[in-house]
């Protein structure tokens, strides 16, 4: 399967492709997550392959529950180090490990809640069937 070349796209097209709003992209630019981008005629935003990959990375991190503050830390490290991905790897691993622990904690709490609900249901069914508490 051949991969088509990625030509620069305008903000509206990029937003449409990624299923987000242009305001979201602009906001990420305003807070410094997107780095610098090219503009045509002084106002039209154009996004190249690296910009698109960066935005996809931001969206992936957001989908995994990573905060904008944490993404900003990664972005700062990335930009300070000439956009060398390996420089953010240790911080990224630490952030992901933290989120894995949070998810594991939520799963444990939900599992406990499920058990409580099942046990309560059993007690109610016993009460209904036998006319007395279990």
Automatic annotation (TrEMBL):
Pfam families linked to this entry: MerR_1
SMART domains linked to this entry: HTH_MERR
PANTHER family: MERR-FAMILY TRANSCRIPTIONAL REGULATOR, REDOX-CYCLING DRUG-SENSING TRANSCRIPTIONAL ACTIVATOR SOXR
Protein keywords: DNA-binding, Repressor, Transcription, Transcription regulation
Name this protein carries in UniProt: DNA-binding transcriptional regulator, MerR family
Entry's Gene Ontology molecular function annotations: DNA binding; DNA-binding transcription factor activity
Limits of the HTH merR-type domain: 10-77
